[in-house]
């Protein structure tokens, strides 16, 4: 049982990490399944949040270090789309990073934060608040419905 638990925690971490990158994955399903199997909600939320924030940091690093041309080509976004995303980030400010967990907009948001050279301290704090909050809500809803 201990091996299954350790493997489960690793699977959650990996799925949370990959879900926070450009890959279209969902860590919520893994989290829910593990909660329903009786694993510690506190440990699961902590592991999922850590993996997801580290995945967001990967996007940030790509934005920070990759050239804009490479990013546009890789993500297949036009100059107009990039300018609009940049304007949205500037318009809503740093606190938009609390929504880095939102599907479709969250991953590009963390990438743009890197491109714009947002201070890493604020990036980590705000992204963590949003991602932690989401996992707490999911954990509560799954546990309450079980």
Low-confidence segments: none
Question: Fraction of residues in helices?
Answer: over 70%
Query: How much of the polypeptide forms β-strand, as a percent range?
Result: under 5%
How many domain regions? Answer: 1
Largest sheet: none
How far do the termini sit from each other?
A: 21 Å
Secondary structure tally, helices = 7
Order of helices and strands: HHHHHHH
Structural class label: mainly alpha
* General form: elongated
Q: What is the average per-residue confidence, as pLDDT, rounded to a whole number?
A: 87
Rg estimate, integer Å? 16 Å
Report on the structure:
By secondary structure, this protein is mostly helical. It has one domain (2-145). Helices cover 76% and strands 0% of the residues. It is elongated. The model has no long low-confidence stretch (mean pLDDT 87).
Task: Show the helix and strand layout.
Elements: H1 2-19, H2 27-36, H3 41-65, H4 68-75, H5 79-92, H6 106-115, H7 120-145
Helix pairs in contact: 1-2, 1-3, 2-3, 2-7, 3-6, 3-7
Brief digest:
With about 150 residues, this protein is mainly alpha-helical. About 75% of the residues lie in helices and about 0% in strands. Helix 2 (about 25-35) packs antiparallel against helix 3 (about 40-65) and helix 3 (about 40-65) packs antiparallel against helix 7.
Please give a handful of descriptors for the protein shown:
mainly alpha; 146 residues; single chain; 76% helix; 7 helices
């Amino acid at each position: 049982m201990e091996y299954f638990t350790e493997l489960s925690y690793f699977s959650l971490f990996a799925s949370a990490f990959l879900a926070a990158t450009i890959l279209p994955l969902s860590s919520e399903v893994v989290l829910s399944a593990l909660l329903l199997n009786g694993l510690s909600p506190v440990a699961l939320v902590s592991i999922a949040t850590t993996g997801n924030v580290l995945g967001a940091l990967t996007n940030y690093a790509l934005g920070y270090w990759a050239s804009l041309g490479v990013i546009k080509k890789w993500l297949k976004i036009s100059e107009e789309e990039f300018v609009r995303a940049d304007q949205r980030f500037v318009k809503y400010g740093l606190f938009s990073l609390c929504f880095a967990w939102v599907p479709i907009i969250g991953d590009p948001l963390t990438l743009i934060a890197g491109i714009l050279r947002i201070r890493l301290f604020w990036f980590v704090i705000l992204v963590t608040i949003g991602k932690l909050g989401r996992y707490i809500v999911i954990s509560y809803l799954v546990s309450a419905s079980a």
